[in-house]
Design the sequence.
């Protein structure tokens, strides 16, 4: 009996030791699993060195300036770049690997997350093409259709919002304004959405409507246009590029009458204001409006004195708060001009000439 008692005690001790070892192994494995889980959580939250899967929206505006334009005696693409706020410009031509981009109209330019994108109507084709490069590089690629159904007869416009790029363009044969969106700026584009009808962007004759101008304040898209039939400036807004608001009329009211617009409009938007410029129909002098978003109708305006165009102008904003306009002179020299003013007010600078073009230039800060 005593032997059996000692034997049972011996088995109990062995069992307790074994159980303790198992619990230790379980705790050890649990600690390893917790550590592994923590690492996975950190990687999914972006702590694993870029494995997050999202993107960081780019800043809307920069300190540098760059515009693109069609040549004067050729249909090639050219650029001018400024690092001193528009006081001086460095110009050059655009060369694409394996091909030569050509256009019959003014291009559009967007800088997004360290890359440059240029969109333009073909020279002998109504298709919209794109080229791209790393902003710090000099070699361009692409010269490829955006989509087979994105076609136009006028200059195109482009902007960025969030991580996406949006293109706005007038239809090929009619005056509708269409918008398409891309997540990469190159090969992936949504089915175009009609933002403005032909009746809203009506020309003197069918298909003769003006080109649109698309811009963003970071959370909302704005499409501006000039109805050539009624010489009015209008805009619509959208948060997704699909559903658009009704049109809002914003022509300036001066000296008892509204300024009649023509040719096209350019605009840039910040948190509080819309900054808009367009050629006055009678004189072609550029009208400028600083319009509070809270009360956009019939805002008073000023002229960008002595600066004229008979094509769509282009407008951008820098991080230092300066508005910079770019436009093509209607004189025989066809020079591209730029001028700037602080967004809070003041007089526009004397225009600086850089490059020759018979198409509308397109400027953006980067």
Sequence:
């Amino acid at each position: 009996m005593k032997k059996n008692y000692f034997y049972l005690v011996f088995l109990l001790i062995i069992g307790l030791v074994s159980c303790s070892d198992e619990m230790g192994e379980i705790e050890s494995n649990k600690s390893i699993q917790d550590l592994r889980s923590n690492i996975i959580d950190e990687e999914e939250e972006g702590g694993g060195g870029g494995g997050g899967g999202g993107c960081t929206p780019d800043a809307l505006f920069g300190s540098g300036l760059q515009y693109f334009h069609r040549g004067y005696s050729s249909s090639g693409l050219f650029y001018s770049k400024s690092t001193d706020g528009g006081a001086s410009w460095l110009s050059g031509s655009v060369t694409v690997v394996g091909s030569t981009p050509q256009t019959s109209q003014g291009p559009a330019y967007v800088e997004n997350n360290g890359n440059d994108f240029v969109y333009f109507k073909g020279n002998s084709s109504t298709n919209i093409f794109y080229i791209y490069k790393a902003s710090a590089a000099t070699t361009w690629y692409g010269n490829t259709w955006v989509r087979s159904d994105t076609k136009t007869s006028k200059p195109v416009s482009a902007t960025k919002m969030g991580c996406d790029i949006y293109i706005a363009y007038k239809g090929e044969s009619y005056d509708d304004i269409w918008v398409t969106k891309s997540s990469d700026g190159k090969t992936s584009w949504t089915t175009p959405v009609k933002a403005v009808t032909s009746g809203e962007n009506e020309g003197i004759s069918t298909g003769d409507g003006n080109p649109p101008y698309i811009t963003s304040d970071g959370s909302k898209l704005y499409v501006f246009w000039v109805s050539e039939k009624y010489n009015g400036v209008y805009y619509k807004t959208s948060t997704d590029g699909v559903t658009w608001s009704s049109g809002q009329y914003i022509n300036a009211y001066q000296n008892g009458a509204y300024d009649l617009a023509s040719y096209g409009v350019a605009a840039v938007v910040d948190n509080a204001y819309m900054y808009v410029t367009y050629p006055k129909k009678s004189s072609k002098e550029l009208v400028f409006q600083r319009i509070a978003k809270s009360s956009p109708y019939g805002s008073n305006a000023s002229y960008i004195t002595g600066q004229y165009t008979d094509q769509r102008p282009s407008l951008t904003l820098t991080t230092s708060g300066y508005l910079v306009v770019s436009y093509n002179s209607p004189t025989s020299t066809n020079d591209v001009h730029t001028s700037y003013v602080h967004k809070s007010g003041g007089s526009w600078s004397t225009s600086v000439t850089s490059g020759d073009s018979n198409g509308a230039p397109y400027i953006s800060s980067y």
Observations:
- DSSP finds one helix and 26 strands in the chain.
- The longest strand covers residues 285-292.
